[in-house]
C-alpha cells in the first residue's frame, strides 16, 4: 500500500455568515440573500427576488443589502451585463466579487433557472468556494478601454487592407506578389496612380521607391491587368477608410499614453514569483529610476521583440500595480500562459493553457514572434525549445518568459532590463563533463579518442 501524501493547505475554509448572489441578465437580475436565522441556531434564511438593472433600482438594492449587513456579494460574469451591478454596488461600499462563469456552473443533471442560479451563487459565496476575478479601478479601466479600442481599430484597418488585396486580385493586379507591403510607399503610389487613371504597366513600375526599384521588371508584369473605373471607385473608398482608421488609431494612441501616465503610482512590490528559466535577468540601477511609471512603455520596450504598440496592449490589460497579482506565477496563471497538468491514475498529461485574455495573449504572442528572430537570450531559448516541441508551443513558452520579465520590471521601477546574452546556455556548460560524454559516445562507436586543448 502506497503511503498517503500530505497536502498542504494554504487557506482555511471560511464560512461567510451574510452573503448574496446575483444572477445578472441584460435588463434585470435575480438576487438571493442567505442570512442566519434570528431564533434557530444553525438555520439559514434564503430570500430570492428580481431587480431591474437600472441605476435607481441598483442604488435601492445597495441600500437594502447594506442594511442587511451583507458581507460578500458574488456576481457571475455574464457578457457586459455585470458592469452596472459591480460598479454601483462597489461604489456603495459593499464587497463585490465578480467570478468566472466557468467556475460557478451548476451541478449537471439538476434543473437550471435564474432563481436556482442565484441560490447557487449565494451558497458558493457562503462556503468561499469561488475566487474573485481581477476588476481594475476606474483609472485603470479607462486605460483598458483605450487599449482595447486601439486593438479593435488596428484589426479593422487590417481587414480593410485585406479587402484592397481582394480587389486587386479581382482586377488581375499582382502587386502583392512582388511587394512585401502593398500599403507601403511604393504600393500606395501605384494604387493612387491606378485610381487616377494610369494604366501603363511601365509607368506604374517606375513609381517604385527604395529597394523596390530593383524589381521594376517584375512590377511591370504584375501591374498588367484589367483595372477598371469600377475597381478605382471601390479602391478609393477603401483607401479613404484606411486613412480614416489610421487617424483614429493615432488619436487613441495619444489618449492611451496620457491615461497610462496619469495612473497612480503604487509602491514598489517585492517580486517573488519568478523562476530560473523565466527569461533574462534584471539589474537594479543606482538611481531611483524614472518618476513613477511615466516611462513604463519605454522601459518595457527594452525587452527583445517588444514595441510600443504591444507594450501598450499589455499595460492596458494587467496595469502597473503588480501587487494585485502578488507573484509572477500567479500573473502567468491568470493570463493563461502556463501549462496545466491533467492527471488521472497513472496517466499524466499536459493540457492546453486555456483561452485567457485574448488581447493580452495576442500582444504576448506578437512579442514572442519578434523575440524569436533576435540574437538574444530569448531567441536562444526559443531555438532550444523548438527542437523538442511544435513551434506554436515553443512560442507560448516564450510568451510566458516575456510576461515574467514584464512582471519584474513593473514591480520595481528601479529595475532595468539586462539581456543574459545568446551564449547564456553555452557559458553554463560543464566542459569537462560534456567532453567526457562525447568521448564515451565515440568510444561506443569503436573510435579511439585523444583530446588535446586548442592553442
**What structural category characterises the helix and strand content?**
alpha/beta
Cα-to-Cα separation, first versus last residue: 61 Å
The largest sheet is: 5 strands, mixed
Order of helices and strands: EEEHEHEHHHHHHEHHHEEHHHEHH
By oligomeric state, this entry counts as single chain
Indicate the radius of gyration in whole angstroms.
Answer: 29 Å
Shape: globular
Number of strands: 9
The percentage helix is 40-55%
Note the topology.
Layout: E1 19-24, E2 28-36, E3 44-52, H1 55-67, E4 72-76, H2 83-91, E5 96-99, H3 114-126, H4 138-170, H5 185-196, H6 201-205, H7 216-222, H8 229-261, E6 282-284, H9 296-300, H10 308-318, H11 328-334, E7 340-344, E8 347-351, H12 358-372, H13 377-386, H14 391-411, E9 415-417, H15 424-427, H16 431-444
Parallel strand pairs: 1-4, 4-5
Antiparallel strand pairs: 1-2, 2-3, 6-9, 7-8
Helix pairs in contact: 1-2, 4-8, 4-10, 5-8, 10-12, 11-14, 12-14, 13-14
Amino acid at each position: 500500500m502506497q503511503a498517503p501524501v500530505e497536502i498542504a493547505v494554504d487557506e482555511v475554509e471560511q464560512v461567510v455568515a451574510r452573503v448574496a448572489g446575483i444572477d445578472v441578465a441584460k435588463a434585470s437580475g435575480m438576487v438571493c440573500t442567505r442570512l442566519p436565522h434570528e431564533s434557530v441556531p444553525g438555520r439559514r434564511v434564503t430570500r430570492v427576488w428580481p431587480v431591474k438593472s437600472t441605476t435607481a433600482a441598483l442604488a435601492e438594492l445597495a441600500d437594502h443589502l447594506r442594511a442587511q449587513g451583507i458581507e460578500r456579494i458574488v456576481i457571475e460574469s455574464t457578457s457586459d451585463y455585470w458592469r452596472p451591478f459591480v460598479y454601483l454596488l462597489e461604489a456603495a461600499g459593499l464587497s463585490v466579487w465578480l467570478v468566472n462563469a466557468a467556475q460557478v456552473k451548476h451541478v449537471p443533471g439538476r434543473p437550471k433557472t435564474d432563481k436556482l442560479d442565484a441560490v447557487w451563487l449565494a451558497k458558493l459565496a457562503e462556503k468561499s468556494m469561488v475566487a474573485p476575478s481581477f476588476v481594475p479601478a476606474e483609472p485603470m479601466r479607462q486605460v483598458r478601454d483605450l487599449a482595447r479600442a486601439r486593438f479593435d481599430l488596428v484589426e479593422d484597418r487590417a481587414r480593410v487592407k485585406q479587402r484592397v488585396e481582394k480587389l486587386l486580385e479581382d482586377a488581375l493586379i499582382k502587386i502583392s506578389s512582388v511587394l512585401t507591403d502593398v500599403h507601403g510607399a511604393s504600393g500606395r503610389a501605384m494604387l493612387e496612380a491606378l485610381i487616377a487613371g494610369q494604366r501603363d504597366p511601365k509607368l506604374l513600375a517606375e513609381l517604385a521607391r527604395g529597394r523596390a526599384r530593383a524589381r521594376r521588371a517584375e512590377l511591370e508584369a504584375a501591374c498588367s491587368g484589367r483595372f477598371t473605373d469600377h475597381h478605382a471607385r471601390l479602391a478609393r473608398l477603401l483607401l479613404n477608410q484606411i486613412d480614416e482608421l489610421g487617424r483614429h488609431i493615432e488619436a487613441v494612441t495619444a489618449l492611451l499614453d496620457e491615461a497610462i501616465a496619469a495612473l497612480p503610482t503604487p509602491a514598489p512590490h517585492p517580486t517573488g514569483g519568478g523562476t530560473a528559466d523565466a527569461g533574462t535577468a534584471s539589474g537594479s540601477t543606482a538611481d531611483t529610476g524614472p518618476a513613477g511609471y511615466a516611462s513604463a512603455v519605454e522601459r518595457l520596450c527594452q525587452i527583445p521583440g517588444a514595441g510600443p504598440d504591444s507594450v501598450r496592449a499589455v499595460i492596458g490589460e494587467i496595469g502597473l500595480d503588480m501587487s494585485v497579482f502578488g507573484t509572477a506565477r500567479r500573473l502567468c496563471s491568470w493570463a493563461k500562459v502556463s501549462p496545466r497538468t491533467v492527471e488521472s491514475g497513472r496517466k499524466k498529461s499536459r493540457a492546453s493553457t486555456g483561452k485567457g485574455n485574448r488581447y493580452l495573449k495576442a500582444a504576448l504572442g506578437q512579442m514572442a514572434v519578434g523575440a524569436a528572430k533576435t540574437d538574444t537570450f530569448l531567441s536562444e531559448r526559443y531555438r532550444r525549445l523548438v527542437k523538442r516541441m511544435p513551434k506554436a508551443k515553443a512560442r507560448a513558452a516564450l510568451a510566458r518568459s516575456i510576461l515574467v520579465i514584464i512582471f519584474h520590471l513593473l514591480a520595481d521601477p528601479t529595475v532595468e532590463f539586462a539581456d543574459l546574452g545568446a551564449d547564456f546556455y553555452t557559458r553554463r556548460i560543464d566542459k569537462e563533463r560534456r567532453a567526457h560524454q562525447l568521448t564515451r559516445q565515440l568510444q561506443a562507436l569503436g573510435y579511439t579518442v585523444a583530446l588535446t586543448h586548442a592553442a
